[in-house]
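Let's do one together. I've listed all components of the complex below, 686 residues spread over two lines.
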Amino acid sequence: MDRLPRWADIVLIPLVSLVLAAVLSALVILAIGEDPVAAVQLMITGALGSTYGWGYTLYYATNFIFTGLAVSVAFHARMFNIGGEGQAMLGGLGVALVCLHLPLPHWSLALIAATAGAALFGALWALVPGWLQARRGSHIVITTIMFNFIAAALLNYLLVNLMRPVGAMDPATPKFPTATHLPTLHDLLAPLGIAFSKGAPANVSLLVGLLACVLVWLLIWRTRLGYEIRALGHSETGARYAGIGPARTIVITMVISGALAGGMAINNVMGEAERLVMNATEGAGFIGIAVALMGRNHPFGVLLAAILFGFLFQGGAELALWTDIPRELIVVIQALVILFTGALDNMVRRPLAMVFAALRKGREA
Amino acid sequence: MDFLTLLQVLDSTVRLATPLLLACLAGLFSERAGIFDIGLEGKMLMAAFLSASVAFFTGSVWIGLLAGIAASVLLSVLHGLASITFRGNQLISAVAINFLAAGLTVLIAQAWFREGGRTPSLIGGARFEPVTLPLAETLAPVPVLGPIYSELVSGHTILVYLALACVPLTWWVLWRTRFGLRLRAVGENPAAVDTAGISVVGMRYGAVVICGVLCGIAGAYLATGLQAGFVKDMTAGRGYIALAALIFAKWRPWHALGATLLFGLLQAVAVRYQNIDLGGVVIPVQVMDALPYVLTVVILAGFVGKAIPPRAGGEPYVKER
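Okay, and this is what the predicted structure of the assembly comes out as:
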């Protein structure tokens, strides 16, 4: 089959997929008797029209940066880590244990300790499926799905029976101590003279997320381990021939992936809720799949896709507030993005490849 | 626990195992033909919604059942299109289908009924009523066997008996017919089937459509048999438990019956008893919730017998590579 130019592969295909998803979503909105143009306008003003909107958009985007990076690192080794949701839940447990039980004098120290706790717990929850894949040959997709459910049951048990304060009805931990509360963008930008909404939950974790993007880029394209991960993803026999141990690389990749997914908890658990509640992840682990596919597994692409989904999430919340369109519209859009950028990639690619081949022929003639 | 309580728990086991069994057999057809399907959940959900809606509008549960099957088959064909025709990733396609169903059902339910993503309660002919088997009333007074017959065997909806009948039927189709042999061969070695002049694509689409039909019945049973109407996310992970049961059963129909009854029993016990006190040691209800998944991980890891999936599973077939 004809090759596409590099720019088309990176920019054009995700863009065409996005347009297809948008058109179908517009049809869905039309079909349920609402006005798609008005809906888009409402989403834009709600998510991007104020620093309050931006604060929510960037807060959601921070979650998706972490889960998107987690899925993309595993994709580089040709593994599908569908367990970001469970790993992020366990990351929340790590954050809660650190914040509730360590005497931390200042938020900066708390952030470092909580990041370590979140990454450690997320990594552990991915280590088991990784090890089972590497040593026992059990399919990573199935085990990570099962681990999502096991994580949900475990968190349910811990919150209801052990971590809930005595006498409280709500299955959640007590509030974290004030010293562990993270500064929001309002607090960070105020010294610079920039006014930012006080009510929005975007916080310093966004910077940690950006740092994670840079670190993942360095890992994948600038280190020996990254080379091994990509080599394994291209061909296991090739990697083996080059002296790369597949089992070891699989386990390490999954540990990194799980640590990234777990890292999300510093944003939603520590930065926003300031306590661990039931179902704190709100499906962000699954949105990571769409984000990684859309971002073509590159940290910069993941960042852009995460902001796009942050916009959709916040815009969708506004829609649910002001119109009769429920929040589930986002789930439909997310499904369509996964469908077109992931499963139906060839459907988008083949016609484009033909167009480019025809153009090339025309130029030669 | 007295005899009657035991019967009631077993009775609810059968009812809860039915959607699992149907979805598990659905996955069996698809995966035996080499198409992985983690989208059982989405297909069931879509079928549950559409069957309940159509049954509500028409007042006929049978038309509802057909609509549910149609919705599920439509999603199956989408999965086939992505994974057979366009050779996309079967796992990613199924993930997309699950989300599509989760979103669309609530979106459409809100547009049609405005009840926060549910359908109105179904009454009368819009629901599957329990079937009383012949002589159930007469035999009830007979000690031991009477209650077993009248409480446990009799008094389920027709779909429960249909699901049970599907077990030997699936075995017969897959292991005793030419179609079944070809279907299994497509999942093990598609190139050999192709060489024999049989269309791999055709066989795989056939398997995917059968999977859709069975998932459709499973979904319709949830909304019109087990419960009276659709509620948001009503499958609640049953598609994944069915998938777990399929692995637990190592892709065999009779074992699928055993696995789904076991998982149904776990659900029935979790519904009836919150925490189980075993002489001082309390088993929390969450253990029951997590047990199917833990058991599946253990089986997959090969610590208790190895579960080996069909060899060509998950791989798109490319002719003349």
